[in-house]
Amino acid sequence: MKSEKEIEEACRESQKKISGIISAIGNVFVGQEDVVEQVVVALIAGGHVLIEGVPGLGKTLLVKSLAEALDLSFSRIQFTPDLMPADITGTKILHRDEGGHPEFTFQKGPVFANIVLADEINRATPKTQSALLEAMQEHHVTVSGEEYKLDDPFFMLATQNPIEMEGTFPLPEAQLDRFFFKIKILYPSFNDLERIADISTSAVGRAIQKICGKTELFKIREAAENILVSQEAKRFAVKLVLATQSDSPYASAEAKNYIRYGASPRGVQALISGGKVLALRDGRFNLSYDDIRKVALPALRHRILLNFEGEANNMETDGIISAILRTMD
């Protein structure tokens, strides 16, 4: 059992590491400070991320930079309609041992890495998409009746293009709910585009400074878990999630009018776990209402389904969540 002084020291050291990771990635992934922060928060909290953005905004660069800053293994899977589950998880192959006897051995797929980029995940068929459910939730895969544990830490970042929807297969609600955050990448500003041009076309290169490794990452996670959560802060997160449920006593006017299904209990977990990492980054030892508010959009936007009225009025989940937050001030 650690003493209070040891916990405080671990929190201060973790705060420096988190700031260092965000800064290192921000040096090459320009103009997306909120995106970088949210991805790092999800990784430390032990969740997975779904990123939505048009091609060319640097999503692959973001994930590779994160892997380099943390000295973790990285793999990229390009999802296509003909991709099969075995192409992701791996399969058993037949070969002969030293004595010439045939035997089956397991050949690991690209999912066996610390950080996995599932690029354009909605282009694969539901059969292939479902192969990731076990990996995301249980951190292992099952092939021919045998379980194979994934590397720890295991962090999946999936991307999808919000514009080109032809020939795609929307992710089912059960799989969307397994993503800790859904993050939207916006187009960079004029000044950010200038910086991107300077970095990407110069001879200097884009070297990423290594900030920490697996051991340090596990220590940061432990420090985040030790952040205190008051009864009031916990109830604030619970009420926020219940406010998205149209049949709840805490339902907001927006939920009653526009929401068919609200956020699941995983929404509460994401609000509290993500908020604890933000508190740690700011050098505080307790979760605040503001921490929960800051992670509300990425934690809840993909966990809300609009009803016919909401679809007909072109309502967006971000706007509904923001309206709910204003009523909770």
Fold and architecture overview:
With 329 residues, the protein is of the alpha/beta class. It has two domains: 1-226, P-loop containing nucleotide triphosphate hydrolases (Rossmann fold, 3-Layer(aba) Sandwich); 227-329, Magnesium chelatase subunit I, C-Terminal domain (Helicase, Ruva Protein, domain 3), CATH 1.10.8.80. The chain has helices spanning 4-26, 33-45, 59-69, 85-89, 126-129, 131-138, 173-176, 190-200, 214-225, 231-242, 253-258, 265-281, 289-300, 308-312, 317-327; strands at 49-52, 74-78, 90-96, 102-108, 115-119, 140-143, 146-149, 155-160, 181-184, 259-261, 305-306. It has a five-stranded parallel β-sheet. A two-stranded antiparallel ribbon has the order 3-4. A two-stranded antiparallel sheet has the order 6-7. The longest helix has 23 residues, at 4-26. The model has no long low-confidence stretch (mean pLDDT 88).
